[in-house]
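ok so heres the complex, three chains, lmk if somethin looks off
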Amino acid sequence: MMDGRIETRDVAAVPVGLIETPVFSRLDQISTAKQWGNWAGYISPLVLDTMEFEYFAIRNQSTLLDVSPMHKYRVTGPDAETMLNRMVTRDLRKVAPGRVAYAMWCDEEGMVIDDGTLFRFAENDFRLCCQESMHGWLLDAAWGFDVEVIDESHSVAGLSLQGPTSFSVLQAAGLGAAGSLKPFDLVKLEPDLWVSRTGFTGDLGYELWVPWDRLTKLWDRLWAQRAPWGMRAIGTHALDMVRIEAGFVAAKVDFQPVLTASRLGRGRTPIELGFERLVHFDKGHFNGRRALLKQRDTGPRYNLVRLDIGGFKPAQDALIYHRKRREVGHVTSGIWSPTAKRNIALAELRAPFGGEKTDDLWAEVYVNEEGRWDKRLVPVTVQTKPFFRNDRARATPPRAF
Amino acid sequence: MNARFDVIVIGAGHNGLAAAEALAKRGKSVCVVEQSDAVGGMACDRLAHLLYNPAPSGVETREIDTVSLSPEGAHVLIRRGEARFTSGKPHPDAAAYQTLYRRLVRYAGLLHQLAEAPPPGLEQGVTSLAGLRELSRLAKLGVGVKRLGKAEMREFLRILLTNAYDLLLDEMPDGPLPGALAADAVRGAFSGPRSPGTVLSLMYRLRHGGGVFLPAGGMGAVAGAYAEGARRAGAEVRCGLGVTRVIVEGDKVAGVLLSDGGRLDASAVLSSVGPMQTMRMAGIAEFDIEAVRRARKLRAKGSTAKLNLRLGGVPEFTGLSAAQVKARLLVAPSVAGVERSFNPAKYGDLPKQPVLEMVLTDGTGPSTLSVIAGHVPETSWTTDRRESFTASVVETIERFAPGFGSLVEEADLLTPEDISAMTGAPGGHWHHAEMGLDQMLTTRPTVGMARYRFGVAGLYLCGASAHPGGDVTGAPGRNSAAQVLADGVA
Amino acid sequence: MGQHDRYDAIIAGAGHNGLTTACYLARAGLKVLVVEKNDWIGGAAVSRSLHEGWTYSNCSYVCSLLRREIVRDLDLPKFGLQVIPYEGGATFTANGDYFAYHSDHDALRREIARHEPRDVDAYDRFSQTVIRQCRFIRPFLLRSAPDPTSFKINDLQELLYLVKRAHGLGPRELAETLRFWTMSIGDFLDEHFENDLIKAHLAGSGIIGTGLGVYSPGTAYVLLHHYMGDVDGAIGAWGFARGGMGAISKALGDCFEAAGGTIFTGSGVERFLVEGGKIIGVALDNGDEYRAPIVASNMDVKRTFLEHTDAKDLPEDFTRAVKRFKIRGSSGKLNIALDALPDFPAAPKGANFLRGDLHASESLAELERAYDDWKEGRWSANPYFDMLIPSQIDPTMAPPGKHMMTVFVQYAPYALEKDGVCSGENWTEEAKKAFAETVFDKIEQVCPDIRSKVVHAEIRTPRDIEREVGLTEGNIFQGELTFDQLLFNRPVPGYANYATPIEGMYLVGSSAHPGGGVMAAPGANAAREILKKLGKGAAVAAEAA
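and the predicted structre for the whole thing:
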């Protein structure tokens, strides 16, 4: 009966499983560790060779990381600034074209949806880079405004070049013009190549952005200059160490992006994450402002703090106690910092702990000593400054490592 | 120097006017701004013809009977809980009908108190003191329900959320009698009697006892009385003046800009138009992204058309006396038929057998038959479609009143599109927003907007999209005014 | 007069709920008898060999709602129960395309983007909302529904629990919850998605087994009801019971017998015996009589009280309420033995999503129109189907290389319209055939060669389901899942706690809270109530933390 009505179209089936970024073949060639992870559906190296060496390369030489899996959205149009300003908590009117701003954005209850970097290419031209998929949210946020939102996640690729010798590598690759970039500056150095002095390391570093199909060429161009500057390619594990040192928070680790949390009450406000300075109440309405205003008066429910932890054992997931008895929070990220030579952590404490109350705090650290578990209560102190700070991160023009 | 009022009300519909009156009575200086040249909004003769609740003071009303027409000629005469055939013969289901009707009116009376105050709030949670106060209001309803006695209480809880189709046909065989109730349950709604929630909308209509009233002087007089009430209380009502913008300063309303270029200052603005229009007036950027999304997704698909047929003479309906012709005439031959009339609207098509409510507005000399017809699609009203729908309504009436077609001198059809353009009602919806279970009480018009407060401090909703909803009652307006006073913003 | 054996408890009907109650009672030390009218146990959870070499799950066909607390309590894996998740699903279109519901999340996002990029995040938001609601509602499944008209301590406690849970939601979430519970699945999907095909794919769970359309309020809850399952912790995951749905009943039966219980098959309860308002036993079709102070009926509420209980033993208003209980059947089924795997020309060869639920309804409007037909007493001219080929995963279902296909079809009325009259009698052999042809025509859109591969097909209309299984009007939930028949209203207001007006008599089937779907929750909850009354505080299916 249906004969003749069936026309079997050649439907391109979507790939199942992880897919490759443009430089996967390069990474695969380099990789000795063969440790791959899933970054937004892409095969991304966790470790290419040895995590420790990759870490030290970030702090000592320079490193190259493929950040193409990041979600990237272009927002353009006459209302771009107004629309984004209503979305994020900080005042974007103060972010000039050619600048990048770290920003957070919240739901109506003031709970953080995600954080990311906003690149302002021109008056009416922005790009948002973030960890979570934000297309749906941006479309909602853009409704009623004269803007266009384009998902560039699969059309714009990026490399993060970080570390003391990163500028030297750029110079050698013919990109010395980046020397004039101050932190958070953004410039178009070549057709189709934008460079920003940004990164997730707290160190000197740059991010380079090109069309998807130009990434391999860019990789090769930088890779060719690696030898004199000790540059190496890295995976995300090493990056995670340095971002903790720099005190940067990671979505799904240090806070739960509220739109993806299926359990109630898991959301946290920017104030609770320690980013009140990025909440600009005086700029007019922005999403969650009314709820955040209330919290500014009543105080946060939690405090995400930096902790210096006693002992030498990393305190990942450790519970935090007050007076060794009352459980008041837990470590969200914890490592031994090889550079600061400290046992450092980010931890979420129930208010007032971590705020007014910072004394007599202890971490319960479990250590597996070759099959035997040792439980230790070690003292912790709350730190206000990042664990890693180096002037070279801010010097402009960059010093020669 | 701009003129300054305590409160500006956008729109002089009955709700806007009721709000103005309530506020002015409490000593507030109030200005009602109406874009069209007449007050009343949807409460105008072209659009509405009957009341289901007491009219504002100063308007005489006359309770009229309902005649549910039967294709077989066994028309049913209904007055509140009484039903018999128009021929005078007793109706076999009269007793079952009466029991059901009384029960519904009784339940509806319980729900009535919920309509006359802002809906129970959730902001406080249920364990705080303020939350307990909210709960105690619900508890009052609970006490009312409790007084019903256990069996009735259970019945109340069972039928509250059920559908009209099952409720009616459990009690009596299908026909014009249950058909009439089914039609009343879904008039103005984008649903058929099988949809759960239609018993609640039927009860909403019955909450003042179920009488059907014809206002002397028509709906225009009702609107006029609302306006008079507002003016008498000291409010100013300005027609022919639209609001182009609600001015917001520092997350507070500061006043409005007018279509004539003028500006009025005020610390509170009440809007009787829909949530989305209100957002646009104040600026989308002043609202949270979720709130805008909810307003966008509000269900407000108009499903009802109004047809005013000017007649060259008094029509004769087979089997109806001259007095009976002046009743509210229904074409709703069965519950299943009402459901069937809804089916095509779901797909944007016209009904094959429209359900009609008709009132002959003047019995002597040339008269007008005022017809509310459902269900119709909200949009895509081409000239062809308008004509074919008008023809099908006339043809339907012709079946009960032979020769009717030749009496029609002029037909004035108002589709949901027209109603929306005329009055600003979202989607041309009778109730500004669907009175579905998901858009009632605490979630009316939608989540986070139920207490009339509308994001920006000093901005309030006061129209039918707010709790309790549609019909010419002024209740949303009064409740909104109460909230403004409670908040102390003006 | 037959024999007069005495038991502590008798269960009428060996459906999965009856067996669950039986297991709990037997394990608490009671002497329990289960009587079953069919020659086999399982009710609607059965595996039957109707064509040599093939096994049909000829009624219910998927397993995911079965409460894990019960599975663990009764140690069902020990009695052979094995549930295997299936690998996705798809909806095919008439023009040769499809929407594949990949179990791989990244692939699913890519597939959604292929159809509508705006819907990619929308899907995650949608599933987040559904999971949130599931988390909220799941604990209620294994609790009795509180009676809001009662001031009994138990009811108050349950109400308090409800209030506490509701408070935990916070104001916005509570309002969203109220809205979700009262919405139609169509409106809910329209709110989230742009793409018709994606909406149609997700809508099925909102209408399966109901007499409602995708735009009927309350169908969002029905979707939840179907999503509350979990296969090993993954909320919403679906699975096959290895060996067919009968494997569940077999495990329960074996568990029961291991606990010392007795099952008699082949003769059902003809009459519940009542004396002075108390149950005293049952009389079977074959004339045998058995006595027990406790009798639990696994039959639906209508069958139990309108057909097998003397009306004089029941209060009039109770009987009236039972008569009013809505139990309209809305679905039919085709169970098909296939010579070989049918060809799916639209899908990539060997695509893993074929090992899941397959559909061919492309839009919500198409589904709604299918409902309109049912309202008029006709089967849908363009029906919705939920089609699976479990033999791709489960080797026990068909001979090697051959396949078993189960096709759940909606809508099909119980009372079929013919010449203006709606009646179950109108389901003649001819009508059944015509119904099957309609379904095959629709399957052909997906598998053009389906007819040539059919070795045997069993056609089941609501009428057949009633006749064989005993479900009144063939309603698969033993009663519609509408607001007025949920929680404290299920099955009859005032009798939501599994007790009946007859002392010692209980209702343990899906007519009782929380309803159908092979959850075994009514059976377990009823057992808890019975044991409580006997002063045996055995923990029954304690809520998982």
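quick notes: Residues 126-234 of chain C form one domain. thats all i got rn
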